[in-house]
Amino acid sequence: MTSSTTTSRPSMLSFLRDGANLCTFAGLACGMLMMYLAFSGQLALAAAAGLWSGVFDSLDGVIARRSPRRSEALREFGGQLDSLVDAVCGGVAVAVLVLAAGDFHPAFLPVALVTIGAPVLRLAYFNVYGMQADYFIGAPIIYNLLVAATVTLFSPLLSDQGFAVTLAIAAILVATANVLPFRVPKFKGAGLRALVFVLVILSTVLIGISLNE
Q1: Which of 85, 86, 99, 134 has the fewest CB atoms within 10 Å, i.e. the most exposed one?
Q2: How many CA atoms lie within 13 A of 159 on its CB side?
Q3: What pLDDT was estimated at residue 7?
Q4: Are 67 and 20 in contact (CB under 8 A)?
Q5: According to DSSP H, which parts of the chain are helical?
Q6: Is this prediction's pTM over 0.70?
């Protein structure tokens, strides 16, 4: 019984023959690049890479909805994959950026824990109870990347310590917003296109800042 059940399952790699899942993996690659650049001290570039993970996160759902022949298993797998990648990019990678801004001082470890913990708690909750059709409950994870990038945008105007503290405070505030019970409209249609436009423009500005440092 066990062997027949096991052999009837599709292989893990078979789920990569899907445009939406490949798009999600592209976002994961950007999150990994964000962490690498943060560890290297290239914080503006790290924030720009994080924004691109947000671009791919915004597009994978569009691709999925335009693929009507996706099986139920593929849709469920894609949802779980998207949730895990969101935890990495919007939680772990942002926490690494906060730690790097604080020169990895132990005082920033509690901030990093909150920055990771709130998105993980949020995503686990919605994996159990599901999402609402037209709105989010609490701030979606992409806001964590947007807030971190926006603060990084103004880093040239701040001292190193001032930037680190400002980023830490902003990270705590948006992490708190992740788990608060208020409604946030979902990005759809023109709103989604505007979001992607903002992500791309902001990432371009951050790259320009990095090149001028």
Answers
A1: 134
A2: 3
A3: 55
A4: yes
A5: 2-8, 19-39, 43-65, 72-86, 93-101, 109-129, 142-153, 160-179, 190-212
A6: yes
